[in-house]
User: Fold this.
Amino acid sequence: MGSSYLAVLRLPHARPLLLASLVGRLANATGPLSVVLLVQEQTGSFALAGAASGTIALASGLLAPVRGRLVDRYGQRRCLAPMALAFAAGLTGLVVVAGPGPAAAMATVGLAAATGAVAPPLGASMRVLWVSLVGQGPRLQTAYSLDAVLDELLFVVGPLLAGGLATLYRPAVGVLATAALAAAGTLGFVASPVSRAQAGSRAEGAGRAGWAGALAAPGLRTLVLSLAGVGAAIGIWEIGLVGAARAAGAAEAAGLLLAAWAAASAVGGLWYGSRTWNRTAGQRYLGLLGVLVLACAPMAAAGSPLALGAVVALVGLVLAPLESSAYVLAAELAPPGTLTESGTWLNTAINVTSAAGLAAAGALVDRAGVPATLAVACACTAAGLLVALAGRDRLGAAPYRGRHEVGHAATRQLRRERRML
Assistant:
C-alpha cells in the first residue's frame, strides 16, 4: 500500500470509521447467499429462495435514493441506526416465517421486500464522510479508490463466510450473523464524531433540495444513465463467463475467470488511487469508460479460457478506477445537501441494471450463444459511453465542486485537525 493510502488512514477517526463501515457493509455480501440457503432449506424450493434474495436486492436498489435523501435531510445518526435495526429485524423475521406452503411463501417474499427497503446506505454515507475527512482535493480520489477496493474484497469474503456458517451450523445462523453485522457495523459507524457531525440539511437550515433531489443536476443524470450501461454489462458478464467456461469444456475455469476479474479490479483500483491526476474527474471518467469499451471488445472473440482470462483481467483493471472516479464526479455534480442521495443513485444504476443483466444473460446464452452474449455486454458499455459523450459538457461542469460544506463545529474541528497533519 502506497504512502498516499497510509496518509488517508492516518487521518483522525478514519480507521475506526472505515472499519465500522466495512463491518456493516459485509452484511451486503453475506446476505444474498445466506437468504438463499435458508429459504431453500426451509421450503425445498430454489425458485422461492431466489425470489426472496432477489426481492431484497431489488427493493434495496430501487429505494436506495429515497433512503439517501432521508439521510441527507435528517442526518446519519437519526436515520442509519433505525434503518439498521429494522433491517436486522427483517432478516431475523425471515428465519421465523420461511417455510413451506403458499401463505409462508407470500410472507417470506413480503418480508424480504420490507427488509430490502430499509437497508442502511452505509457505502454512500461513508463516501460523504470521506469528503469531510479529506476534502474535495486529490486525496478524495485516493480515499474513494481505497473504499472501492475494500468493498470488492467484502464480496469475496462474504459468500465464503455465509457458506461456512451454513455448513458448520445451519443457514439460519448465516442470516442471523448478517443481521448482527448490519446492526453492529452501523451502530459503530454512527457512534463516530464524524458521523454525528453530519446532522443533515434540516438541522443546518439549508432547506430542501427540491423534489428532484440529486437528479436536479443534469450532469448527475448523465452519469447515472451512462453507468446503467456498465451495470448491465457486469450482470451479463457474470453469467456469460460461466457459459464460456462450460462451452470450452472447462467448467471449473469459471471460478478462475471470476477470481481474475476481482483480483485485477483490486490491483487497478489501488494503482489508480495512489496516483495524482491532473485531469478533471469528468475527463477521467470519460477516458476510463472509453478504455473499458476497448478492453471488453475482444471478449466475444476469445478462443480459449486462457485468452478470455487475459481479456477479463484487462476489464477488471479498469472497473474499480471507473467506479471510484464516478463517485468523485458525483460528489462534484450533486447539488448541496444531496451527497448521500447522489451516491445511492449510482448504486441503483449499477445494481438494478446488473440484476437485469443477470436475468437476461441466461436466456441470451441459451438462445444466441456465448459470443453473442459477450458482444451484447460490450454493446451495453458502448451505449454508456455514447450517453457520457453526448453529455460530456454537463459532466465537466461540476458546478457544486467544493460547496458541500457542513456547518457543524465538530466537522470544522476535524478539518482543522486535518490541516495540522
In short: The chain has two domains: 7-204+406-421, 213-404. Residues 399-421 have pLDDT under 50 and may be disordered. The two ends are 19 Å apart (CA to CA). The CA atoms of residues 163 and 169 lie 10 Å apart.
